[in-house]
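Go through this pair.

…
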Amino acid sequence: METLKKLFPLSFKEKKSVGALIVNVLIYLLLDAAVGVICALVPVIGIIGGIVGLYFTVGILLSILDYFKVIK
């Protein structure tokens, strides 16, 4: 679990309300969109965009699971 907390620090940041969770998810979505645009403009780094997209998706899932105390 400590490894996940080091890899996804934003996901495990304390969220006191649903609004904080929504802001957290929006941050991940905006960053994912920005990386997607960059990868669309520079097709050579397309594989990196896929990996980064996967990172953001896992980050969102971990953030939701942490908020609902499914994982500790």
Q: What stands out?
A: The mean pLDDT is 93.
